[in-house]
Amino acid sequence: MGWDFTDRTGFPFDTTGGDYLDWDNDPMDENLFSHGTAVAGLIGSETNNGVGIAGVAPRIKILNNRAFDPQGYGEEDDVAAAILYSVLMGAKVINMSFGDYSYCMYSGM
User: What is the DSSP letter of 65?
Assistant: First the structure.
């Protein structure tokens, strides 16, 4: 089933909602846009069943891990723990969709 490694608490994060306050074995996607669930579906959806889409690897086994809170914020130690757990569980491929709204510009090359 996987693991929920997210443990964000306190300001400025809401400490009253969701199960992301403690590590547990429930990696349920609580993100408003369910990005992780959508990506897993694109990868592993069954084919020829008359429902939805066909995944790119329909016979794959998927280990779901969470390292981000419901708002999409994450910490490096939670990501590292999820990667190490995945490797220990025998993962051969790890998909991580990281993104950000800000960027850095460097000058003086």
Answer: E
**Amino acid making up residue 4:** D
Write out the residue range of the structural domain in which residue 40 sits: 1-109
Number of structural domains the chain divides into: 1
Structure tokens at 13: 């994060």
The answer, yes or no, to whether the previous bond of 27 is cis (omega within 30 of 0) is: no
Q: What is the pLDDT of residues 72-96, one digit of tens each?
A: 778 888 899 899 999 999 999 998 8
pLDDT tens digits for 21-48?
A: 566 787 777 765 678 888 888 999 999 9
Identify any residues that bridge with 66 across adjacent strands, giving them in sequence order.
4
End-to-end CA distance of the chain: 47
Reported as type and span, the H/E element at residue 3 is strand 2-4
Residue 33 CA to residue 41 CA, distance in Å, equals 13
- In the beta sheet, which residues pair with residue 25? none
